[in-house]
Design a protein that fits this description.
- This is Glycosyltransferase family 29 (Sialyltransferase).
- The chain is α/β, with parallel strands linked by helices.
- Helices cover 29% and strands 13% of the residues.
- It has one domain: Alpha-Beta Complex (sialyltransferase cstii, chain A), CATH 3.90.1480.
- The chain has 7 helices and 7 strands, in the order βαββααβαβααβαβ.
- It has a 7-stranded parallel sheet with strand order 5-4-3-2-1-6-7, sandwiched between helices.
- Helix 7 links the parallel strand 6 and strand 7.
- The N and C termini lie far apart (55 Å).
Amino acid sequence: MTPAPEPTLPPDFTAPRLAVVGNAPELGDRSRAIDAAACVVRFNNAPGFGGAAGSRVSVLALVNRGGQARAWVEEDGFGARAVVRQAGRYLLPFPELAPHEEGAHERICWTAPLRTRLGDRPVQVLPAELHAQAHRALRPRPPDTPNPSTGFLVAFAILAARPPALPPIDVYGFGFAGWPGHPWEAERLWFAAAQAAGRLRLHPLDP
């Protein structure tokens, strides 16, 4: 049987002005700058949406493994959330586990239930090979941090899909801190290198 082709990444990723909005609470009021972008990418619960973080969302990335994904699947009002309802499309950062893989069912991988909750809305999953490339790009990476963050995975995917001749993307609200299972320092170094290469502008958090 011929395997299905990997899904293409959102065409929005090649918009001339693209804003990637993280969830750090020290974002500050960046609403005007964020909403002026042609494409706005947000993550998970998107704190600040509708306020200091702006009110537009083109792509909403939703983590599809672990307890947060399970909570969304079990939440009655998940689909009625403003950021979920207004998103143009949805992106799941972790490849769906095959049925025989450890954690493939509801203990870890919630890809299929999330698709069901989002109904007929456009949902894409980051290709497995791109996910592997993202892992290799984080060096040095402590051995006890197996998974990059959703923010890093999506930013990596955007730059992989985006021609270098396009303007740099604008990145807001990234604090490189949070759940200890992510390699925050390696991710911070990658963002700094991408900024030095002219691929992104990392806007500092408000003190």
